[in-house]
Amino acid sequence: MVNLIVRSWLAGALVMFAPMAAADSYRYMHVSIETPWTIFIFLMIAVLFPFFLMGVLYWKSAMRRNAEADASDEN
Length: 75
Description:
Elements (H helix, E strand, L loop, with lengths): L1 H28 L4 H41 L1
């Protein structure tokens, strides 16, 4: 019984407040012409950072292998 009351209360709250939130979302988020650029820059960094990190780690590993190979050649 309590579960039914809670579900009906939540459904009523969603029905009552959903249209107001949808009408007010642009004012709440302060969407402007800069917003797409901000999203683009964030996603570009999020996509390209793993490739940059992979290159740096590969370069570091290659330098270490070269140093180990040079050390073994001297002996």
